[in-house]
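FAQ

Q: What does a record look like?
A: Structure on top, sequence underneath. For example:
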């Protein structure tokens, strides 16, 4: 892979490449992420488990199969499933998310590479009905042990222990949190021009 430098707008694939791909001389100075789900999901699109009893039952039923070896290896969506009610199960059997977020062990290379970014921009869509919980778009998630209340990135153990280097980046002014009204990936050209284009210039 050749050496690159520059800026990108993307989602999970872009974010996940940063800790790993920087080691292959693919260097981005800035990354703008739309509808990112770095903390995972615990719900189905347009079926909010926090406010719907039926949706809550469905997501609890999914827990039984989401972490099976077969499902984890063959269904990409399952690799983002993060069950806050069974944190040990998640950390043990999540093939991808628990690893990239350093929840089992800290890979110092991942941490160092992420901190090479000059700017890490996360965009939350305030009425998003696809990503559940929506706070994951800002690296927040449901508090461990329950499935109703969320915590911010800054309140999380990931941040307090600085397992990914996000706390250091935040203190250095490298993290930007943007929000826009609208459902999943719904934004106006005017909003994009005013808020995101400056990062890409």
């Amino acid at each position: 892979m050749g050496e690159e430098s520059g800026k990108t707008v993307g989602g999970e694939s872009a974010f996940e490449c940063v800790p790993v791909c920087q080691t292959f001389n693919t260097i981005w100075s800035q990354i703008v992420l739309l509808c990112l789900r770095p903390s995972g999901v615990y719900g189905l699109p347009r079926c909010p488990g926090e406010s719907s009893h039926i949706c809550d039952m469905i997501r609890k039923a999914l827990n039984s199969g989401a972490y099976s070896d077969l499902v984890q290896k063959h269904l990409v969506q399952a690799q983002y499933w993060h069950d806050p009610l069974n944190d040990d199960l998640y950390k043990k059997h999540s093939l991808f998310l628990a690893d990239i977020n350093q929840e089992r062990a800290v890979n110092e290379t991942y941490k160092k590479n992420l901190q090479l970014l000059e700017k890490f921009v996360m965009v939350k869509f305030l009425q998003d009905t696809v990503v559940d919980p929506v706070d994951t778009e800002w690296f927040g998630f449901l508090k461990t042990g329950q499935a109703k209340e969320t915590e911010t990135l800054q309140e999380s153990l990931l941040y307090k222990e600085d397992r990914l280097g996000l706390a250091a980046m935040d203190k250095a002014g490298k993290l930007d949190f943007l929000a826009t009204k609208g459902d999943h990936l719904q934004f106006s050209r005017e909003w994009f021009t005013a808020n995101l284009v400056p990062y890409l210039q």
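Q: Is there anything notable about this one?
A: The first strand starts at residue 7 and ends at 10.
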